[in-house]
Structures are given as structure tokens and as C-alpha cells.
Amino acid sequence: MIYKKRKMPNELKALISLDKRLPHDHEKKTTVQKNLLIYQAGYNGELEFDDQIANFKPNYSFAILHDLYLQHEGTYFQIDSLLITPSSITIIEVKNFKDKTVIKANPTQFIRVFRNGDRKPIPSPIMEVNRKIQFLSKWLDKRSIKIPIEGILTFSDTNEIAIEHPSPEMEILLTSAIPAYLSSQPEAQQVLDKKAIQTLANTFIASHKDYNPFPIADLYGINPSDIKPGVLCPSCNEIGMRWGREKWNCLCGHTGKTEHYQTIEDWFMLIKPKMTNSEFRYFTKLDNRNVARGLLAKTGLQLIGERKAAHYILTKEGKSPIPVE
């Protein structure tokens, strides 16, 4: 059973918005677009994995949790996907590399082979998984939970992988092979019953903390004044909708009443964790203070302070101002 579904990573969401609002000739544009492609490829690989793992249907109780962020002694660690079965926990690391990857053993080494033939060693995902196994083991020990932990490394089916013998110490699979591989594993001694699996899965969910890279302009050293203001039209994807006759209007003909929601979310992702009425008017290109106040009141943002000190923040739950349908 899927206990926690995967959401688009916050940094990917922010990079998509930043790319739309950063001028083409900005000095950080190339870096932003390069990282955007990397994050998008990684997310696409994870979604491909999610589709495949959904085909895993054993005759015993299990729990799958995607995209976990846990903390142990002040250190956060991220797990792409976690499988809990009656006999073990498996950390599954999902990779999606554009270029060919050569995997050597003794010592384990990953080498990226570019299309022009150049080769470059990259950090070992196996070592990465082993570190996560250590962190998770300590995290479980602190809660007096004893269960074997394993690791699997998976690559997208579109990746070219060359594994030199002898094979590295960790199972390396293509995403499409995951359901069959997991189903073929012999059932070991039971450690957790169905209720214990459910309890542990819910403990993971309760301990999960969303990764927050905001405001991303600071992360990339971008001056907020370089970020283009305006309301993005969801129809033509251009920035420049104007408020008139109680709705947003675009030159392409699209109109709507909630297009400023995405603009507000962009502000919090890109620029800073609070917003004044004046900043809202600047970023949406609104002229009327009272109209701005009315629109902000309907967003679900939390109003803090009064008069000149008044500003808006996300709710304590950190929820987006955009309604979830």
C-alpha cells in the first residue's frame, strides 16, 4: 500500500518559476536552466519508478513511502522511496542520468561518459545509500525499532548502464525490473505484523519534514529586483495580466479571478517569506491598495501586525495560498 505519494520537489517548483521570471540575458540564467533540467530529469525518473512499483503486489502486508525527509541529531537525510515489509526495510535510490554511466567495483566507482567520449568520476550513489542506511538505522534505534535495512539502486530504463565485474556490493536494477525483483525475494523471518507496519509507516509520515530551499533567489545569489514582476497567464504563459472589472485580463483573451495565487506563491518561493500589501501590489502590478487588501484576504495567508507593520505569511502549516482541488 502506498502510504505517502510523491510530490513535485520544492526546488523544482521554484526553479520553474524562477526560469520564467529571470531575464534571458541574466548572468545566472544558464545555471538556473541547467539545474532545472537536472531536477526535472530526476523527478521524471522518480515518477517512472512510482509507476513501476505500483505493480508490486505481494501476498503479505507492506508499505511504500515516497520522498521522505527525516532528521537525526540535527542532520536531515532524504530517501527517494522506502519499502517496509514484514521482514525488512528497503531504501530505494532512484537515478536518471542523461549520459552513459560506467560502474566499477573494487573500489566502487561511478564514471559518467559524455557523448564526446570524455569521462568524469561522479559521487557514488552506493555510498550515498549506505550513508542513508546508517542514518536510518540510528533513527530507528532511537525509537527502539530493530529491523534489517537493505538498499537498492535503480536507474531509469532510458539510461545506459555498464557494470564491470565483479558487480558492486549493492543490487543495481533498471526501474522496470523492480516489481519482479522484489517479488522474487524469499520471505525471511517476520519482524513486523500488519499493525506494526502501519504504525511504523505513520511514524515516518509524522516525522517527515518538507525540504524548504526558499527563498531560492538567495540560494542562487540573485538580486530580487532582477526577478520580473507581474501575473502569469496560464493560457499563453506570458507575464503581464492586468486587473480590471474584478478579474485578471490578458492580451491573449484569457480572463480569471485567481491568477494572482501563483504570483503570490512565486513571491514566497523566490523572494522572501513574508509579503506586505505594497509588495503584493508591486509584484502583481496592481495600483489600488483596497483591491489588493481584498484579494489578499481571500488567499488564506495569515495577516500579522497592524498598519505599517502589517504583513502576510504562509499559514503555520506552510500551505500554499493556491487552493487544492
From TrEMBL:
Residues 41-159 form the NERD domain. InterPro entries: NERD (IPR011528). It comes from the Bacteria. This is Nuclease-related domain-containing protein. It comes from Sporosarcina thermotolerans.
